[in-house]
Every structure is written in structure tokens, then in C-alpha cells.
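Box 3.1 A note on notation
Throughout this textbook, protein chains are presented in two layers. The first layer is the amino acid sequence; the second is a C-alpha cell string describing backbone geometry. Keep the layers aligned when reading.
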Amino acid sequence: MFNAREETQAIESRAATTIREIFRSGRPLTYIRSSEEQRVGRILREVAQSLNPSAPVPVWTWSLTEEMHRDGEAPAAGTGSPRDALDFIDAHNGSAIFHLKDFHEPLRESPQTRRRLRDVYENGFGQGKFVVITSPVRFIPEEIERSVMYLELRTPDAAEMVDFLREECPGVDDEVLQLLAGGLLGLTLQEARYALRRALVVTPRLGPESLPVLLEEKRTLVSRTGVIEFITEPTSISDVGGIEVLKNWLLERRKLFQMRDSLTSEIVPKGILLMGIPGCGKSLCIKAISQCFQLPLYRIDMIEIFSGRHGKPEAAFVEACKLMEDLSPAVLWFDEIEMGITSTETAGEQGRIFAFFLTWMQEKAKGLFVAATANRIDLLPAEMIRKGRFDEVFFVDLPAEEERVEILRIHLARRGIDPARFNLQQLIEFTNGFAGAEIEQCVVSAITKARLAGKELTDRDLVTTAVKMVPLSRTMHEQINHIRAWAFERAVRASKYSLAR
């Protein structure tokens, strides 16, 4: 862990590094889109220290209500209007950083202000004076569009969050700070502050036991987007019956994912695509990946994306993907991906979303593992399933005999019933063609009937229930065979057992 301030450069935040590089390149005008004015001021003061450690560059702040001032000082005389503020900047001698809040409105309304800003820009070259405009909205006049450096300030990264927690929680060990910072990634500093206060209400001191409270607050905040869901139901990989090939693949790749910071992006696992027959455990596998990798699980709701309630679908999808990168490390789940992301041959926004998704999959943050499921696999374009997008494409088929027995054991044990009491082998012939979900329903129905009869569950109850059930593989025989034929040479079997086609 780093404790000394002289080592700040080594732990400098992503935002501070970017702004410092912009200033050192000599650009006098930067526009930052962000609603976190206090955070921007904090970053600018940090950058001011790094530009000249022996004599920090002064930081001036202007707003319509507080005029031009430095921290703890009275406002400079005659700086109340936007024009006066720009005159002050132009006349200032020596290096300085000028933070102009909500300056987009004066730029929108006044040609004179736009002209004066261009004068400040032209006179600021080589003077060490840097003007930073911040606003929650983007408005860059055409006159200065080629002169300004535009940035969208993303949520704090781990380095910035740890630094913030160190100030908010003095005396807490750095190891704990790192743990808490990981749980708060994706939140603004103000949101993180509220989360910390909530944790202190539940626990008297901050520690590893505070993490569940922080994650619950994070779930609440993330869910307000309306298109991203924080999945909290824990599922162990041991709760998934069968599919040993997929399980082994995940356990092997987990090691690489945990070493991602020391590996190149080509080696770090990007994600997997699970395709196959409905009810065979694809969604359950995704939840197990989260537990296996020890990462939070998020799901993007494509129905909400295309609902129009969150603006244009394309913009909502892009913003959701960017937010997920801020929330990394994490597992991102696209359920029934074929229903929301279709080929570039599709006209309109769906085609543009697909094109963005393909590029994003190759360039996204290394800490984000994408797990997608698909039922209508024939709708998936070739660009989606080729190597380089996903690390592997797995086909999840109906469970084989050995896997059906394992699934029965799991579902009986989950409901507090000892599987050793039953002759599960005799159920194999009665559950032929059953999907995992249908086996679970067989167990649930048999238990329900036994409870209603006021007796313990028996083998006969399970057999009787199974005989009366008609599995999907019979009612949709042609479709199931079509899915198997399509995936036969296009995907890796998730199970080590083979079924007759």
C-alpha cells in the first residue's frame, strides 16, 4: 500500500492523470461534463500540486453566485458577470487554473461571451493559464468547438476512491480501504459518502462486515437507472448439475481473470456465450459465474433499453455499457441476447447497437466479464459468435442420465430432503428428455402433493409426478432438433456426456 504523499504519482487517479496531461500539452481550454463540481475542484487542486510540487499553481473558482475566488478568500472585485470573469483571467499574471461553473448558459446566451472566451483562448497559449468549464450538460458553441478539449468525467476509479475513503475514514487500514473502494466503484463521491453513512448506522465501525451494506446501497443506486439490475441471489457452482466441461473451463479461466492486472488484454477472459435449449440452466450458470469469480453480477435489461422510457435506445445502451465499465470488476449478463442485439443488416437503431456491441466487446475494460445467453440461436449473426468477441461459445443440451440424477440430488437437498432416502436411478427412465427446470418442477410438485397428503415424500411420489409431466423436448420436438443441429458444429458442448440426436 502507498502511504506517503511523495508517491502520489504512482496512485494518481485516471481523471487526474488525464487532466494533468491535457494541461502539460499546453491546451488552455477544457470542457468537462460532470455534475460533480466538488469532485472536479478536488481533482484540479490535486493536478495543481503535481504541475509544480514546490509552488502549487493557484486554483480560482467562478460561479454566478460566488464570483471569482480562491479557497477561503473573498471574491475578487468586479468579477460578477461572465464577461468580467473572462477579463480577470485574461489580465491575470502567472500560471493558474480557472474553474468556471455552469458556464454553458452564458456561452449559449451571449455572443459577446463567446467572443471573449476565444480571446482568452488565443492569449492563453504558453502562459500557463488553464480554463476549465464544468457543466452537467454539454454545450460547446460552434465558434470554439475546435479549440476546446472535451471530457466526460466518469465515476471515480479505485485510486480516487481509496484517496477519498482515506480522508473520510481516518484510521482505517489500507487493506480495508481497498476492499471498501472495490465495493463502491461506479458511484459518485457523494453517493459513496451516503453509502458510508448508511454502513456506519448498521455497523459501529467500517470493516469487511460493512461491505454487504455498501453493496446494498450500490444496488439501490444502480437500479434507479432502470436498465441495469444488480443480481443479489447467490448461486454456487456446486448448485449447477452436470455441464462439467463448462465448469472446468470457468475454474481455469478464473485464475487468469484474477491475474488480469498483470496480463495483456488478449489473455484476460472477455466472456462466454451460452446457447441451448430453454430450461437447461443457462441463467443458473451465469449466476454461478459471479460466485466462481467472486464478482458482483449485473444484468442489462434489453426490454427496458428498447422501451423508450430512458431516451433513445442506442444512447441508453451505450450509457449502460459505459456505466458497467465504471462498475468493473464485475460480471455483466445479457439474457436472451438474440432478442435485443441483432445483425448490422437490420436497419435503424438495432443495427447500430449491434455494431457498437461488437466493437465494445473487443475494447471494453479488462475487469468486465460478459456472460450472454441465447435460445433462438439461429437468429445470432456470424459476427457475434466468431472467435474474438466471446472466448468460447457453449451449447447447453438436455441433461444426460448421470446429470439428471445429480440434478435430482441437488433439488432434493436444497429443500431439506436427504437424497440418500431415494432410489434416484429408477427415475432415469421416467425423466428421459427432461430439462433441468422440468426436473426441479417434478421435485417441487411431488413435495407439494406429499405435504398436502400429510406424509413424507417417497419414490412413488416422484415417479408418479414424472410420468404425468410432458417435457418440452416432446411438445417441441422439431424445434429442439433444429437447435441441436444448428449448434452441432458451431459450439462447444457444455457437458462431457453425449446424447442421441
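The chain is about 45% helix and 10% strand. The longest strand covers residues 129-135.
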